[in-house]
């Protein structure tokens, strides 16, 4: 049902990026908005100017009376739902949703007052080409990615594929702009009736498309491509991705969650509202992900169609074998077969899915060495994005071209430079132990590992086997240094540094030709830096200044 916000008293809890997007969207839709944050004004000076002039601010504390007098609460991802004021509001029956859910409801249902049509209109099934003759309603909706590691790269690659295939998408969530910020651009364009200039049609599995939605002017949208975190999933209500993926689940954010099960349960909410005509893409190789899938789907009445990606097994979906990535996505109806035609002529998987006997063969998608982003973890990211794109009817040629062209994201195992035969890599986004495991697996060694920062209750002993095999020295910085040294210090030469510059200088002095210096902290950045981006950029600056 459409959401009605005009003259409603809505409190946004938590400022930052998500809070700004939510507050400004709510204001545009006619709500009376208050933003509350326990941080003080000087700590939020970069965010406050971005709020609309009518938004009221209550900073430095949370006043329960504001929560309890609200018609609705919108919670930013960094705010735990367990704080007292939120618990009391919930007990009173006040609706509580997150910024992600707000964006989804406006995009899906629109608004009656003020009148805003749905941003993602329902699409009829495709009549020809692609997967439209097999999967009813496969066009339109949300493509959502979660997992402990690889979310941003997979989401960005998926969006790259969809745009390359001619679809109109917006990218957001836990990556780039808040989704409410992107939705706000479209809402404003609808109210002003501004339309983009005409541009040539694009082939996209049977439909003709126009300009990219990134301009924020076009209200005709095929997909929202979203990276979603466990924090965001805690506060969903109706959020229902058309295609969802869980990349992996390893211990993380245990400073917020009491157990890995609690964390896994939050991740599993990504498919909580999915139905039989939706799709779920799962990492076959990840035990915790497979466990969560089995436990949650066992008690779910309406189950999405499930596909897998794997580096180790031939699965129904996308898999790696003998240097090649294969695709094995069967027709969804189980009865309708695609008339044979040459591959890559029409959109989606047309002509590749069914043989003469009606069987579903595995077909080569791409050689692994052709994929531009390198590393074991990026192989998994590439397979997940490919499966999701193909299930969303992206032309297979667009998927393959994207795998060859997409160069990855900053701070994710990013090559910085080579100096005197030593290669330097920035993996500042490696903020947990699982991420560092994936990064270390991408190198044969010898590695000088720069790690440390603010501990997130990580189990650093899980790194022991890889440190023993591949790491020649560890340089530690930040609050968790002593804990990491206690877990790993007996396996490799371990040195403590007072700051990042000293850590880089020490690493440089220890490195010889063919070594790798890898910043992969296994910790959060907030003890010494504004965020992981700040840490990564400072690392790159220091490395580039070396002679």
Q: Report the top-level CATH class of the largest domain.
A: Alpha Beta
Please identify which CATH superfamily of the largest domain we are dealing with: Mur-like, catalytic domain
Strand order of the largest sheet: 7-10-6-11-12-13-14-15-16
Low-confidence blocks of residues: 123-139, 194-219, 331-358
CATH topology of the largest domain: UDP-N-acetylmuramoyl-L-alanine:D-glutamate ligase
Q: Any idea what the shape is?
A: globular
Domains (count): 3
Average the pLDDT over all residues and give the rounded result. Answer: 86
Please report which band the strand proportion falls in: under 5%, 5-15%, 15-25%, 25-35%, 35-45% or over 45%. Answer: 15-25%
CATH architecture of the largest domain: 3-Layer(aba) Sandwich
Largest sheet: 9 strands, mixed
**What percent of residues adopt helix (DSSP H or I)?**
25-40%
Round the Cα radius of gyration to an integer and report it: 24 Å
Q: Can you count the helices?
A: 16
Would you report the number of β strands? Answer: 22
Separation, N- and C-terminal Cα atoms: 62 Å
Which structural category do the helix and sheet elements fall into?
Answer: alpha/beta
């Amino acid at each position: 049902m459409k959401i009605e916000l005009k003259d409603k008293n809505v409190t946004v809890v938590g400022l930052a990026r998500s809070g700004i997007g939510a507050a400004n969207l709510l204001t545009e839709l006619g709500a009376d908005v208050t933003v509350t944050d326990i941080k003080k004004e000087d700590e939020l000076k970069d965010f406050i100017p971005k709020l609309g002039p009518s938004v009221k601010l209550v900073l430095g504390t949370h006043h329960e009376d504001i929560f309890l007098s609200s018609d609705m609460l919108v919670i930013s991802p960094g705010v735990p739902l367990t704080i007292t004021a939120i618990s009391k509001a919930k007990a009173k029956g006040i609706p509580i949703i997150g910024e992600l859910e707000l964006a989804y409801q406006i995009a899906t249902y629109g608004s009656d007052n003020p009148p805003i049509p749905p941003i993602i209109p329902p699409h009829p099934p495709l009549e020809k080409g692609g997967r439209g003759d097999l999967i009813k309603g496969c066009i339109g909706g949300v493509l959502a990615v979660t997992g402990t590691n690889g979310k941003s790269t997979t989401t960005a690659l998926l969006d790259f594929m969809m745009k390359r295939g001619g679809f109109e998408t917006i990218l957001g969530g836990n990556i780039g702009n808040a989704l409410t910020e992107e939705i706000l651009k479209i809402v404003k364009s609808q109210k002003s009736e501004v339309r983009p200039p005409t541009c040539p049609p694009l082939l996209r599995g049977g439909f003709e498309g126009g300009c990219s939605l990134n301009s924020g002017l076009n209200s005709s949208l095929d997909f929202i491509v979203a990276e979603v975190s466990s924090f965001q999933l805690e506060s969903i209500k109706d959020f229902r991705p058309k295609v969802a993926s869980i990349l992996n689940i390893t211990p993380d954010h245990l400073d917020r969650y009491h157990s890995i099960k609690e964390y896994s349960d939050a991740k599993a909410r990504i498919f909580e509202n999915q139905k039989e005509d939706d799709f779920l893409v799962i990492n076959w190789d990840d035990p915790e992900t497979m466990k969560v899938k089995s436990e949650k789907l066992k008690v779910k009445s309406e189950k999405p169609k499930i596909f897998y990606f794997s580096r180790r097994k031939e699965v129904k979906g996308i898999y790696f074998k003998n240097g090649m990535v294969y695709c094995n996505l069967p027709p969804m109806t189980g009865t309708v077969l695609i008339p044979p035609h040459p591959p890559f002529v029409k959109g989606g998987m047309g002509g590749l899915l069914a043989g003469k006997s009606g069987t579903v063969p595995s077909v080569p998608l791409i050689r692994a060495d052709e994929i531009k982003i390198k590393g074991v973890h990026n192989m998994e990211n590439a397979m997940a994005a490919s499966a999701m794109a193909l299930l969303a009817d992206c032309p297979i040629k667009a998927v393959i071209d994207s795998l060859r062209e997409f160069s990855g994201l900053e701070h994710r195992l990013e090559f910085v430079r080579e100096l005197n035969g030593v290669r330097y890599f920035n993996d500042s986004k490696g903020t947990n132990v699982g991420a560092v495991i994936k990064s270390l697996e991408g190198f044969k060694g010898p590695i000088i590992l720069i790690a440390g920062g603010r501990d997130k209750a990580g189990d650093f002993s899980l790194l022991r086997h890889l440190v023993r095999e591949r790491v020649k020295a560890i340089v530690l910085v930040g609050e968790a240094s002593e804990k990491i040294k206690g877990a790993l210090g007996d396996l490799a030469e371990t040195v403590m540094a007072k700051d990042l510059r000293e850590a880089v200088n020490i690493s440089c002095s220890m490195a010889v030709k063919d070594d790798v210096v890898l910043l992969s902290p296994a910790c959060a950045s907030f003890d010494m830096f504004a965020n992981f981006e700040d840490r990564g950029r400072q690392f790159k600056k220091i490395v580039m200044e070396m002679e």
